[in-house]
Amino acid sequence: MHHRIVIVGGGSAGISVAARLLRAGENDVAIVDPAADHYYQPLWTLVGGGVESIERSRRLQSTVMPKGVRWLQDAAVEIDPDTRQVTTASGARLGYDALVLCTGIEMAWDLVPGLAEAVATPFAASNYTAELAPKTWELVRRFRGGHAVFAAPGSPIKCPGAPQKAAYLACDHWQRTGVRANAEVTFATGAGGIFGVPEFARVLETVVARYGIDTRFSSELVEVDPGAREAVFETSGPEGKQRTSIPYDLLHAAPPQRAPAFVREGPLAGSSPFGWVPVDRHTLRHVTYPEVFCLGDVCDAPTSKTGAAVRRQAPVVVANLLAGLAGRPPVARYDGSAACPFTTARGKVLLAEFDYSLAPRPSIPFIDTTKERTDMWLLKRYGLPAYYWRVMLRGLD
Questions:
Q1: Torsion over CA: 314, 319, 324, 325 (sign)
Q2: Which residues are catalytic?
Q3: Are residues 235 and 248 part of one domain?
Q4: Tens digits of per-residue pLDDT, 109-146?
Q5: Domain stop point among 241, 256, 271
Q6: Residue 118: domain span
Q7: Using CA atoms, how far apart are residues 21 and 319, in angstroms rounded to an integer?
Q8: pTM surpassing 0.90?
Q9: 347 assigned to some structural domain
Q10: In a domain, 342, yes or no
C-alpha cells in the first residue's frame, strides 16, 4: 500500500491534521491508529475532582475520524524513514510521500518501582488514565484525614499542571466538607518550581498558601512501597541527592512518560532517553528527514505537552507539509503557544497561556487571565470540550 500522506496516531493531533488536509484538497490520506475510543483527556482532571463523568470525555473513534481518510485500525510497530515505509502489527506495510508522526506518549509506570502496584490498591490513583481518574475522586471523597501526597515527575509529561490541579480540587473539597483540618497535604515535584511563567507562578503560590500545601521542589518520586504505604523521593540540592520516605494515606501520582517503544527505539528518535522526536521547533519538520513532520506530545519542541499546543501546531504542520510536497520551503512557524487551565477550586480557573519566551500570551481580549476566574471555569468545563469535538477535530480553526 502507498499513500501520499500517512499519519501515525489518531489522537487530537492526528485527527486535526487529517481534517485540515482534507479541507486543503488532499484526498490520499491514511491514519494508522488501533484505538476504538477517542478521549478528550483534559476533562480527566474534572473527573478526578468529582465534577464530570469519564463518559463525557469519550467518543467512538469512528465518529471523529474525518470522512475521506483511510483508517487502518492497527498499531504501527516500525517506521523506516529511508525507504519511507510504516509497518503495522498485522504485517501491513504503508509507503508514503510525507509522514506525520503524532503517536502521543505512554505511561512509564515501570520507571518508578512499586507505582503500578500502588495504584492497584485502595490508597493510590492517578488522573492520567481513563481507568484511574474516577478512582481519584473516590479516594478524595472517602478521605477523612491523614497524609495526602500528590507527586509529579520533573521530566516532561502531558499537561504538566495536572498533578497540581488534582491537589487543588482535593483540598477545595476537603475544605468544603470539614476534612482539611484533619489532613496533611504534600505536593512533591521533580521540577524546580511551581510553574515556569512567573506571572502565573505568583498566583499559584497564593493558591498553595491558601490550602496550606507543603510544597517540595526538585523532589522526584523514585519508589513506592504499597504495603507500607510509603512514597520515596529523591531530592536534589547543594549537598547532592538525598532520599526521603513519606508515609501516605492517599497518593495521587503522575507517572513518568515517554515515547512509544517503536518510536524511541527507532531511527526517528533523538538522544533523549524518553525517545522524543527531534524537530525544528518552528517548522515542526524532522531535523534529518524533511518529509517527516511531528507534533503533539511525542515531539521535542520545548513547550508544554498540551492540547492547546496541538491546536497551534496542527495548522503549521499542514502548511509546511503541503509546501514540501509542492517543492517549496516551509512557510509557517510555530511560536511555542501552549496553555494550561489550572483548576484552582471548584468554580475557579487560572488560564495560563504562554509561548517559547515563557511570557503570558493571552488569546482572549479584555479579560485579565492572570487571575482565578469563574468564567474561565465555565470555559474549561463546557466551552473547551465543545470546541474540541465540534471545531478542532474538524479542522475548522
A1: positive
A2: 159, 340
A3: yes
A4: 999 999 999 999 999 999 999 999 999 999 999 999 99
A5: 256
A6: 108-256
A7: 9
A8: yes
A9: no
A10: no
